[in-house]
UniProtKB/TrEMBL annotation:
GO terms for cellular component: cytoplasm; DNA polymerase III complex. This is Beta sliding clamp. Its main location: cytoplasm. It is found in: Cytoplasm. GO terms for biological process: DNA strand elongation involved in DNA replication. InterPro entries: DNA_clamp_sf (IPR046938), DNA_polIII_beta (IPR001001), DNA_polIII_beta_C (IPR022635), DNA_polIII_beta_cen (IPR022637), DNA_polIII_beta_N (IPR022634).
Amino acid sequence: MKATIERATLLKGLSHVQSVVERRNTIPILSNVLLEATAEGQLRMMATDLDLQINDSVAAAVDQPGSTTVSAHTLFDIARKLPEGAQVQLTAAEGRMTIVAGRARFSLGTLPRDDFPVIAEGELPTQFELPVELLKQIIDKTRFAISTEETRYYLNGIFLHVAEDNGNPVLKAAATDGHRLARVTIDRPNGAEGMPDVIVPRKCVGELRKLLDEVDGSVGVSLSGTKIRFDLGQAILTSKLIDGTFPDYSRVIPTANDKILKLDPKAFMQGVDRVSTIATEKTRAVKMALDRDRITLSVTSPENGTASEEVPGEYTSLGFEIGFNSRYLLDILAQIDSDLVEVHLADAAAPTLIRENDKAPALYVLMPMRV
């Protein structure tokens, strides 16, 4: 294999694929990126961790088509440190890869292309497209609530399923860690009818979100009950899905919370952030005392002292006190784009519903805590 490629082009392609590669691998070839120079003037790159795979292709001047695998992180670091505008010559033969750029020359060990594992997609019967901006919104408004507890592996991703809402066909994305729930509802895209319920793993969601910043237009989504593929122009992301059953989260979404608090999410967020400065790392508890049109936030920490702040809000129900984990509350408030947020409360022990309004695509549920 012999190909010449502009440094910025190589770096861009490698930045897409190398982040899938785990830093520590028991299987040596999983540390490598597969490079394939084609007669059509393309340098194809592929990396995998056996659950997730990214393919990308960039333009290159190919003198001799061929393929090999080389350490992904090493090649990426070399490309990063080469001078801007450099032409990079990649030559692979007899178990070595030579990289030449200007006066710099590197020789790296390679592993055979035939040993490189590829995720077999199989049939992906459900296929639809989503606008890039909409897919970004779905991810941003839900992924903060994905659980990181490996014991409840079925919560380690975003749950996608189709449903009917008041007779309208919709696609819902939900994530929860047992303390909070985030859900986004959009119109069901054409082609998504009959789609199986799927859980997209956290790592796939993270890689997809990074790639979306470089794509315009729309993204092709193809899936089966076990795999999902995202077509992002030059890049293709394929992932296994989480083999588990997502809990029936609709049961925790309160429908009868009749105490409604309306406030400015930014002012509320800043107030919570300020008083939680002295909260202990372990509980991060902030207390909210509600009175007619008066909301007092307070934190009491045995080590650090006390803090309180009044925030403006509209509240006309009976007064009471409720406590929340300030970190969880701030994560939710950061997703609110409008100037007004509605907090639907029942009592100090019941789940609380947070949303912009009843027409908003996103809603959040937060479990209170004792303070």
